[in-house]
Amino acid sequence: MNDRTARAALTRLFEPGDRVGRALVGRLGAYAALRLATGAQPVHAIPEATVEELSEVLRRWAPRVPEVDPKKDLAIIERLGGGFLIPGDERWPEGLDDLPDAPYGLWYRGNIDDGIPAPSKCVALTGSRDSTSYGASVAGDMVYRLAQRGICVISGLAYGIDAHAHRAALAGSQGEGPATLAVLAGGLDRDYPSGNADLAAAIRGNGLTLSELPPGSAPTGTGFCRGTASSLPSPESRVSWRPAGAQVR
């Protein structure tokens, strides 16, 4: 099993942000971590976790082990016109490796030719699903102007501000690189929310939909919390939308 296949398996076995799982990968590498996590090799302590802690998380991971089938997941995403990026790939986003909880890999669908733009060419904007008409108008105007300057806008495909941001980016695109990227909280075999499926298809025309979770994964609370932020090129490119306006962090 190669590193790509092992990392694909880990996206189904480990929850995003799992401290012990991340420590295993960092200490042992993806393949050895997968073998230990699935019981294929004996448990042994690592500096970040005792045998007792590892035994506890192994019990938590055990119900997911029968579902681990990375070759199947990779075949599904390929049929959907996508793939699975891992560290070291030419298209792997700059800066992700500097994050303390960087994804094991990124599942994607869409146009990968231009990859994910560098941090200096991206901004992420998210906001209320129940946005006011004023908030939607201001957000749309701001994003449209960013897109005209060649800035790629990253958001979460949700109703409200997220959807307005994606649409404004597509409208303002100058055709140089991806206009907008959508980071989903579940597997990419299902656009969520389904009411934005047409928008997701438009995004994939010259951009990407992305997720940390493999095909077939239902959207989770953890996924919504991490969502856009965890897949950003850098923390400096984040924008949070508030009723009074946008705040750059």
Structure description:
The chain is an alpha/beta fold. It folds into two domains: 3-68, no CATH class; 73-248, 3-Layer(aba) Sandwich (Rossmann fold), CATH 3.40.50.450. Helix content is 39%, strand content 14%. The chain has nine helices and eight strands. It has helices at 3-13, 19-28, 30-37, 51-61, 70-79, 133-148, 161-172, 197-206, 221-230, and strands spanning 82-85, 106-110, 122-126, 152-155, 180-183, 208-211, 238-242, 245-248. Strands 1-2-6-5-4-3-7-8 form an eight-stranded mixed sheet.
Task: Provide keyphrases for this structure.
single chain, 249 residues, alpha/beta, Rossmann fold, eight-stranded mixed sheet, 9 helices, disordered C terminus
What gyration radius follows from the Cα positions, in whole Å?
19 Å
Strand content: 5-15%
Main sheet specs: 8 strands, mixed
CATH-derived architecture of the largest domain? 3-Layer(aba) Sandwich
Q: Order of strands across the widest beta sheet? A: 1-2-6-5-4-3-7-8
Low-confidence stretches: 239-249
Classified by CATH, the class of the largest domain is Alpha Beta
CATH topology of the largest domain: Rossmann fold
Average pLDDT taken over every residue: 88
Distance between the termini: 40 Å
State the shape.
elongated
Topology readout:
Layout lengths: L2 H11 L5 H10 L1 H8 L13 H11 L8 H10 L2 E4 L20 E5 L11 E5 L6 H16 L3 E4 L5 H12 L7 E4 L13 H10 L1 E4 L9 H10 L7 E5 L2 E4 L1
Helix pairs in contact: 1-3, 1-5, 2-3, 6-7
